[in-house]
Amino acid sequence: AADDLDVTSTVISPSFRSAPWNQEAKATLAGEPEPSSQTLVLFVSESGVCRSALAAAAFQAAIQAVGLEDRVRCQAVATQSFNVGEGPERAAVTAARARGLEIPPDFAARQFDPGADMARCDLVLVMDKFTASDVLREASGLAVGFGGLTPWVSADAEQGRANTGITVFDSIDTEGRYSTRVRYLRQFQPDSPEGMTEIEDPLYGNTGGAGEAAAMSAAASLIVPSCQGLAAFLADLNAGCEDGAALKARLAETVDGMQGIDWLVPPLLRAGT
User: Fold this and answer.
1) Which domains can be identified in the chain, with CATH numbers?
2) pLDDT tens-digit profile of 158-193?
3) DSSP 3-state of 72
């Protein structure tokens, strides 16, 4: 009977977002200062208290090492809300200290805000295809309610179109370059094996003990050199830049020319559907 038909897992739930240009307009009308000339890098993980917290600490040390602390800053955010307001995971703190890094004592997780963050950030670094999907799907303005994960569609399989102009933000503001700002952190790891772009969640399936410590150490061994590689990448771009605004512009042009990343593309956002 029709009354017994449950379609809750196969329908689309509309989700209303505040677009980046709305955030920019609100700031202007409110008399807020002009956007910072500093390049803002956002590190994104699911919880915001583990991988991204460690990445922010590693990157802060790396930009200081290359002398970019006056032109580049960073933040860590979560795609999910369950750890908002909490401090870093103990495993992340331990891994950081083992590498001479310190996560700030006042660190508190906050959730990724598609409109505000995409308006402010110059580069958004995700850890794996799941956080990439969360960020790019949120930035698309759609929340898809299909049960389970959607197929992971590669850019090559979609003839490079799956990650080019797929978001609503990009479709409306073609000069915004919103989706091109989203990159895998491990893309910047020196000598990273081809096709190896993900940094898996070390706490997934672990409940402490030696297994969790080993997984956290393995993740840190990818996060730290990736952050150092990112700092070196920015230092190269900064060469010849007379000010922070010039670095921001050069970074935007550079990432805009990079190939799109692979992510879990919802069916309605795929090319040709």
Assistant:
1) 16-269 (3.40.50.2300)
2) 333 333 323 555 555 556 567 889 999 999 999 888
3) strand
**Alpha-carbon gap, residue 273 to 261, rounded angstroms:** 20
Write out pLDDT tens, residues 12-49.
444 444 555 455 544 443 444 445 789 999 999 999 99
**Angle 103-250-237 from CA coordinates, rounded to 5°:** 60
Tokens matching residue 168: 């609503």
Task: Give, in order, the Cα–Cα distances in Å from 190 to each of 9, 180, 193, 226.
Answer: 42, 21, 9, 7
- Cα separation, 219 vs 127, in Å, equals 10
Q: Where are the alpha helices (DSSP H) in 69-208?
A: 90-98, 114-120, 129-140, 168-172
Distance CA 226, CA 185 (A): 6
- Lookup: tokens for 258: 């990079």
Can you say how many angstroms the Cα of residue 230 is from the centroid of all Cα atoms in its chain? 14
Identify whether the C-beta of residue 192 lies closer than 8 Å to the C-beta of residue 135. no
- CA pair distance 256, 251, nearest whole angstrom: 8
Cα–Cα distance measured from residue 188 to residue 183, given in angstroms and rounded to the nearest whole number:
9
- Is residue 47 within 8 A of residue 78, CB to CB? The reply is yes
3-state secondary structure of 270: coil
